[in-house]
Amino acid sequence: MRRYFGRKLLVYGLTFFVAVTVNWMIPRFMPGDPVQSMLSRANVAQPAAVEAMRAHYTAMFGFDLPLWRQYLNFWGSLLRGDLGISIWLFPTPVTDVIVRAVPYTLGLLIPSILLSWVAGNRFGAFAARRKWLDNTVLPLGYVLTATPYMWLAILLAWAFGIIAGIFPVAGAYGYDLQPSWSGEFLGSLAQHWFLPFASLFLVAFGGWAIGMRNMIIYELEADYVNYLRALGAPMRLVRRYAFRNAILPQVTGLALQLGVLVAGALVTEIVFSYPGLGHLILQAIQNQDFFLLQGTFLFVVVGVLIANFVIDIAYVLVDPRTRTGMGGTA
Amino acid sequence: MALSVTDLRVYYQTLRGEVKALDGVTFSVADGEIMGLAGESGSGKSTLAKSLIRLDGRMRHAGGTVELDGRTLPIADDRAMDEFRFREVSLIPQYSMSALNPTRKIGKMVGELLAARGVPGGTAELERRLELVGLSKDVLGRYPIELSGGMKQRVVMVVSTLLNPSLLIADEVTSALDVSSQKAVATTLLGFRDHGLVTSMMVVTHDISLVYQIADTILVMYAGRLAEKAPAEVLVTAPRHPYTRQLVSALPEVGVRYEDRRLAGIPGNPPSLLNPPGGCRFRDRCPVAFEQCAEQPPFAEVAPGHLVACWKAE
Fold it and tell me: Which residue numbers delimit the ABC transmembrane type-1 domain (chain A) (predicted)?
């Protein structure tokens, strides 16, 4: 058991290292010059002042150092929890910008991932046993799961926001409100949250339902089911076993899908101008904000790694076959 | 009479029509009798074995009755059959290696099965029976993956016979085993009967030489019908049906060098059961066939306990 988790931790550590390095490289090798864009934003006319400002900013962000020094400094400050200063929202520290955005992203992601997984699995297992459901609703599931996140998001925004006018299509709360714990604010928050949540939920739901339906049909044909049925075990018991065994590949699927879901959430946020991490990434790219981009990516990477690790542990708890493998040299 | 089957017909539904896998089968098994059920692939022996405990989705009960200890088995009614399964009729399946739920500890699974069938407790009896087949009670705390193939087979044998069924069906239980395990399984089956854990037994196999060692009687099937039933000794030494004769002569014998003499086979193939020809189904491959074979011969008693479906059997 210890060996197993030791090896897992090593793999996750390596992944983290590579991810951080790539993360540092991408903005630096991207075309564009952030200092230049800050200077043009400042709109100064005298060439001498421009030169002075350029030197100031370059030194401040450490762009005058050789690349390897920049890289080492980056690790150093990262370990101190310092992600640098945002160029777009200068001079706010990147950490503050991210902390402000994270609740919105998590508020979208966690419910949509968990609810779609639970509901999709239940529905898929249910549909596998009813022909009429299998024939009517599952094709819909195929359509849903094949739909790109942002496309469904645009469709929902158009149908429920523009045409029906039930839900707002931009922002996390009404523009005329200040964040507070008042009922009015919370209501507005929920209203703005619903459509981005629904688009994430629906796409993922279709995928889980189809996967579970296929798994259940497969399990109900398994030898142990035939044996139990031959011994007169009631369908209730058989279904319970089949469901539990069918859920195992779905747990693995969840681990594999996490990255995709996060990416989907980021795109969906952009469609709905939802002020989460996806929105930040877009702004950071548009403003050549290295530090913000780095920080946001880093946050996403760490989040996905942690979630995967949790699923790894959960898998060990639910499937005895992985546990026996750990006892030996495997 | 423990089991009596009368004119049983079970057909498979396929896209091209009905396959008459079991086409009018009448026989009985006495209390305490171990009956071997032999036949080649496609003869209907597995269909017969399945029909007595659980028809699968493609099988249709087309007629005939099955009586066990004087009660009619509702074989076409999946729900009504549940009451008889495990308690009255039980099965040791062909797939013992994968018959246990891989994600449940064996003891827990058996406990849940017993509770679902309304049989509380039973742990002490289960442990005692495991001991009988040479397993310690530790296996109850293990997952199926932690057991060897032979251990899984023995666990399944114990579970299947736990409620002392009146009829036990052993479906090709030795097919996947090596010769020494085959011997152990055969001995265990014999032990179940001798200890009174099961009343009668049907051992389905394609291996006459194995079933000969444990069975009291052997029933030979051919193309969905019965060919011959006789005491095991008689069937092997003095078979009367031409098919059985050729089948037995195709078995290797001790002391004969097959370098010198080729083992005889049976030329030809069994007929398709989709639209089987009328009359005796072995006619086309039979060396002694004559005009009367165009008529189906009755499954008639030619000597005490010896039944043959052949016009030339007397």
Answer: 102-311
The predicted pLDDT at position B257 comes to 65
Question: Which CATH number do you get for residue A164?
Answer: 1.10.3720.10
Coil, strand or helix at B303: strand
Written as one string, the DSSP assignment of A42-70 is: HT---HHHHHHHHHHHHHHHTTTS-HHHH
Q: Do A324 and B145 touch (CB under 8 A)?
A: yes
Segment B128-148 mean pLDDT: 91
Token pair belonging to B72: 């009619």
Distance from CA of B185 to the nearest CA of A (A): 19
Nearest CA-CA partner of B7 in B50, B69, B71, B63 = B63
What average pLDDT score do residues B134-143 get? Answer: 92
User: End-to-end alpha-carbon separation of chain A, Å?
Assistant: 11
Rounded CA separation A135/A274 (Å): 37
A294 CB-contact burial (10 Å; exposed 0-12 / middle 13-18 / buried 19+): buried
Q: Is the pLDDT of residue A327 over 80?
A: no
For residue B102, the chain A residues in CB contact (below 8 A) are: 224, 245, 320-321
Torsions phi, psi for B16 (to 5 deg): -95, 0
> How confident is the model over A170-211, as pLDDT tens digits?
887 877 777 777 888 888 888 889 999 998 899 889 999 999
| Residues B93, A228: C-beta atoms closer than 8 Å | no
* A174 is a domain residue: yes
Q: How many domains does chain A have?
A: 1
Is A184 within a domain? yes
Distances (CA, A) of A96 to A57, A83, B20: 20, 10, 77
A191 - beta bridge partners?
A: none
Give domain status of residue A47, yes or no: no
Per-residue exposure over B70-85, b if at least 16 CB sit within 10 Å of its own CB, e if not: eeebbbeeeeebbebb
C-alpha B220 chain-centroid distance: 11
Please name the member of B56, B98, B116 whose beta carbon is closest to the beta carbon of A224: B98
**pLDDT tier at A329 (50, 70, 90 boundaries)?**
very low
pLDDT of residue A81: 78
Burial A196-217 (b: 16+ CB within 10 A, else e): bbbbbbbbbbbbbbbbbbebbb
Domain edges within chain B: 3-88+166-181+196-308, 97-164
Backbone phi and psi for residue B100, each to the nearest 5 degrees, phi listed first: -105, 140
Maximum Cα interatomic distance, chain A, rounded to a whole number of Å = 92
The ipTM assigned to this model is 0.91
Q: Is there a contact between A232 and B143 if contact means CB atoms under 8 Å apart?
A: no
Domain covering B3-88+166-181+196-308: architecture: 3-Layer(aba) Sandwich (3.40)
Which amino acid, A59?
A
- Residue B261 pLDDT grade (very low, low, confident, very high; cuts 50, 70, 90): low
- CA distance to partner chain A, nearest, from residue B81 (Å): 8
pLDDT of residue B313: 79
CB count, 10 Å around CB of A182? 11
CB contact under 8 A, A224 and B82: no
User: Cβ of A230 and B93 within 8 Å?
Assistant: yes
In a domain, A53, yes or no: no
Domain range for residue A212? 99-327
